Description:
Blueprint: E1 3-21, E2 24-38, E3 43-48, H1 55-72, H2 81-90, H3 95-112, H4 117-121, E4 128-129, E5 132-134, H5 139-151, E6 156-160, H6 165-175, E7 184-188, H7 195-205, E8 212-214, H8 230-233, E9 236-238, H9 245-251, E10 260-263, H10 265-268, H11 271-284, E11 287-290, H12 297-307, E12 313-316, E13 329-331, E14 333-336, E15 339-342, E16 350-352
Parallel strand pairs: 5-6, 6-7, 7-8, 8-9, 9-10, 10-11, 11-12
Antiparallel strand pairs: 1-2, 2-3, 4-15, 13-16, 14-15
Helix pairs in contact: 5-6, 6-7
Amino acid sequence: xxxxxxxxxKHDMKLKAPWAIAGHVHESVENIFFxxxxxxxxxxxxxCAPENxxxxxxxxxxxxxxxxxxxxxxxxxxxxxxxxNNLLRDLPKHHELRTAVDIxxxxxxxxxxxxxxxxxxxxxxESFKTSITIGVxxxxxxxxxxxxxxxxxxxxxKIKIGECVEEDIERVKTxxxxxxxxVQIRVDxxxxxxxxxxxxxxxxxxxxxxxxxxxxxxxxxxxEMLYFPEDIRSICVADxxxxxxxxxVNLAKNDKPFGVFNIKLMKCGGIYQALRIAELxxxxxxxxxxxxxxxSKVSIxxxxxxxxxxxxxxxxxxDGFFDLGWDRVSGxxxxxxxxxxxxxKIGIGxxxx
Length: 353
């Protein structure tokens, strides 16, 4: 694929409402969009959501990607390991930027083959239920939000916890009273617990049937997870603890602190690296969850296509677009009653508005 032109844009993606997780409140997010066009006029679109979206950091990220983009013009790129290894070499400190470029490469290549990305990768599933997330809220607002999501057809709720273990226990117990036969509940502590607090939380909720407990401790406390028996660790999810393939290798050794890996394209650097982690997880008998930040449909769609191509995908948490008040693109996927599936267009299925 000979590259004819490249463009880079950044946009402020206002949230529909302020969003709270343990220790943080967000009112908007910035996404950077990357488009690459080959000599035949076929374009691939990628995007990223920088974790640190301060104005200074965004300006640095935008300039870095713009400078990199200019070097791609007139290059002849192949869809092979060398292209993605060179991407890691050229942008070693910028995993989010690598994600935007990686997605655009995959989108472009699938379009040149006139197939969807999941068909290019090899589909294992046609669709998957996604969870819908409720931020750190009062008990009353949590119940109100949960009931609203249930009324819209969502059957998997993910609750942000981690600020006060006693209040977390109360919120989770109350939610299980809403519709326990038809709704699954996951929790995400966002590194908010100590080992002692995790023990307290688990002992108070273990009989309820929680589906997952995501990243309860800080990444540097991964070894503390080995205190817990395997039946607990099997429902615990590594999120911030797994940002790269090397992290996955370390977490898959010997006694495993987590039974599930949460792969986020933004953390690991894109589809190519995500598939490497997924292959390792399959070999080690570790289930996969596919997550996101508040992101454009571009990267959400890319993550969905990738998730559907991996046989050990067991959980999907790709609800980040639902929080946005605006997006640069349309299309990507179809979500009905919480079930996500590609829209069957070529590439990742998105197009600029």
